[in-house]
Amino acid sequence: MSCPLFSSPLPLTIGLASFSNDSLIAFALESGFMRRAPRKISPRAFFQSFLDSAITTSPSFNDLAAQIEAAGDSAPSRQAVAKRCQPAALAFIQAIFAEFLTRHIFQNNSQPPPDCFRGFTRVIVADSTLLKLPDRLFPVFSGTANATTQSCHCRIQTAYDLVARRFIYFSIDPYCKNDLAAAPDLELQKRDLVLRDRGYLTAAEIERHRLAGADCIYRHMTNFTYLDPNSNLPFDLLAHLKKHGSIDQIMLLNNPERTRVRVVGGPIDEAAANLKRMRARKETKGHNPSATVLALMSWSVYIVTSALWPCVLEDVRSIYALRWRIEIIFKSWKSHLAFARVHRLSEIQLRILLMVRLMLVVACTDMLYRPCQFEIKRRVARELSLLKFMRYLELHPEKIPQLLRFSALTASQAEAVARCPAELLQTEKLLVKYCCYEKRKRLNFHDQWEAAA
């Protein structure tokens, strides 16, 4: 089933409003995509053909040629489009993609962060997601293989700022470049707080945060060694937890710099601990984890780089739980934006396709979801669900112009209601009815964000 967003004006908004024809020509000349006036396929037509079809299917050269003809630019053959999908075309789209991410075309969310984050400029959640590719790309992107079969994947790294509510980083990497290898690629700034899972955890990465003036929180990883700051000898974490039941101490990492960190931990529900042990045994496929690893699953232990913030274990748990937001974002891509749909194509065509799709993802979240979420919160004190909102866009693309007008409201609630046309009031009712979280005891992301210590 294809995604019906092809009929929406969202790609048109990005292609025609965000980039003038002169700017696209400048990118084309700089990248070598255009050396003279094009006879068949202009830079705008090439870019727009991907925008108009990338989120619906995995477009073939024939599809792209038909899209260019339907837009009235020219009537190229599929062979002509194929000849343009060369390294220069990739450089052209990369230039557009980089400019799109760095432009300040989106207003930052004006909602102030919770008190515990006031000392941070950015609160970054970062993770990667895998995308299955045709096996013909295995030599480029690698994957998993055995004696009889192989499976090709690429890894998309993403970083999202919870304070500004916007994406700050993307990369498209081979499967063999795991999270550990990609960890140093995230550019850190002073007063950043980074929340990532254990796949990115190394002593060198924590030291990099310290040198940059940034902070991070990680879950403890098996075989990660701490040193006692007094004796400089390895610290027996399990023995301490068994004796005291919890931990909140300054430790040294086993690296040349002897980086100081704060180790905070406490017990978890035993039923949850047993479930973790069962999963661990299952995932090791017959090779049972060590007794120490299984015993440590009765506690949750965190590494915090700041010695003074936050001050108690429950604060650390609630803040680290915000990392799950990136998983919901990935789910919205794959479930409602046709992101995982890829046909048998070349490496260059794949990279162009993924960069264009990422631009559409940013547009859906920054141009539509974020301002609509703010307006619904301000006007009726309800929270907009990202997954429900993306599902609504998927099923009702004709509503996008209406949603764009609704998201443009900037007046106070009373003034907005007084001058708001009936169409926008109807939009508000639709969003509240179909796209907001249900009222229930379980906290959604926005509740967790506001409830952070």
Structure description:
The protein is built from 20 helices and ten strands. Strands 1, 2, 3, 4, 5, 6, 7, 8, 9 and 10 form a ten-stranded mixed beta sheet that branches. The chain is globular. 32% of the residues are buried.
Distance linking N and C termini: 44 Å
Average of pLDDT: 85
Structural class: alpha+beta
- Distinct helical segment count: 20
Low-confidence stretches: 1-7
Helix and strand sequence: HHHHHHEHEEEHEHEEHEEHHEHHHHHHHH
**Approximately how much helix is present in the residues?**
40-55%
> Measured on Cα atoms, how large is the radius of gyration?
25 Å
Shape, principal axes of CA atoms: globular
How many DSSP E strands?
10
Strand content: 15-25%
Secondary structure elements and their pairing?
Blueprint (H helix, E strand, L loop, with lengths): L9 H9 L2 H11 L11 H11 L7 H10 L7 H7 L2 H16 L19 E12 L4 H4 L1 E3 L4 E12 L4 E9 L4 H4 L9 E4 L7 H10 L2 E5 L6 E2 L9 H8 L2 E7 L6 E8 L2 H14 L7 H6 L2 E6 L8 H8 L4 H12 L10 H34 L5 H10 L4 H8 L5 H7 L2 H13 L10 H7 L2
Parallel strand pairs: 1-5, 5-6
Antiparallel strand pairs: 1-3, 2-3, 3-4, 6-10, 7-8, 8-9, 9-10
Helix pairs in contact: 1-3, 2-6, 3-4, 4-5, 6-15, 14-16, 15-17, 17-19
Question: Could you give a quick summary of the protein structure above?
Answer:
The protein has 453 residues and is of the alpha+beta class.
